[in-house]
Design goal:
The protein has 194 residues and is mainly α. The chain folds into two domains: 21-81, Helix Hairpins (Orthogonal Bundle); 92-193, minor pseudopilin epsh fold (3-Layer(bab) Sandwich). It has helices spanning 21-42, 53-59, 64-80, 92-102, 105-117, 165-168, 172-182, 185-193, and strands spanning 123-129, 135-141, 152-158. α1 runs antiparallel to α3 and α2 packs across α3 (64-80). The longest helix has 22 residues, at 21-42.
């Protein structure tokens, strides 16, 4: 069974002015689709045929199959981290956990931004829950994903240039400002509760 490009959970123009429809045309319609297409070309007649994305990511060695499967999963997760009705601050158990770990939402946001701005090259910055159930901010490079380290992804920001070059050129801090205006805290809270 072939993998399919999942639809965005909102219209392409819904995240404007922070992320433009043009960016989503390229990022979702071309980059994300290319990962799906490449994965579909790599999996048939291999041990990965019939496996879920998660199973492929957890079992494939570094290389083309892992890279494309992880990028399909990472991007699908990232789209859900954004919402036209997002932004603000989390509430409930996630807010309490952030407060307990960093002392304030502002301090958490500052540390997340610092990690993201200084994450070299094509990369991702994640809020994760580790095996002990504690929150951490972690960076991954290329197609890296927390699930290979036994961590549960709560929230991510895509730091590949195709995520922000059209709207922000190469000014990553400005892109992060737009990201915070769109964060889907309901999705993050569901991941934290899982």
């Amino acid at each position: 069974m072939a993998f399919e490009l999942p639809a965005l959970p909102y219209e392409k123009d819904a995240l404007a002015p922070h992320i433009s429809a043009e960016t989503l045309e390229f990022h979702h319609g071309k980059h994300h689709k290319t990962y799906v297409d490449k994965l579909n070309g790599l999996v048939p007649n291999t041990e990965y045929e019939g496996k879920s994305l998660e199973d492929i990511i957890k079992s494939a060695p570094a290389g083309p199959v892992f890279n494309n499967a992880a990028q399909v999963w990472n991007h699908t997760f990232y789209w859900h981290c954004l919402s036209p009705n997002g932004g603000g601050e989390p509430t409930g158990a996630l807010a309490d956990a952030i407060q307990a770990k960093w002392g304030s939402f502002a301090q958490f946001q500052a540390e997340f931004n610092d990690k993201a701005v200084n994450n070299f090259g094509s990369s991702w910055t994640w809020l994760v829950k580790n095996a002990q159930g504690e929150l951490e901010i972690v960076n991954t490079s290329n197609a890296g994903t927390p699930m290979t380290n036994g961590q549960t992804a709560i929230l991510t920001v895509d730091l590949w240039e195709h995520a922000y070059y059209i709207d922000y050129r190469n000014v990553r801090p400005n892109y992060l400002n737009g990201f915070w205006a769109l964060v889907n805290w309901d999705f993050a809270a569901q991941n934290f509760a899982a």
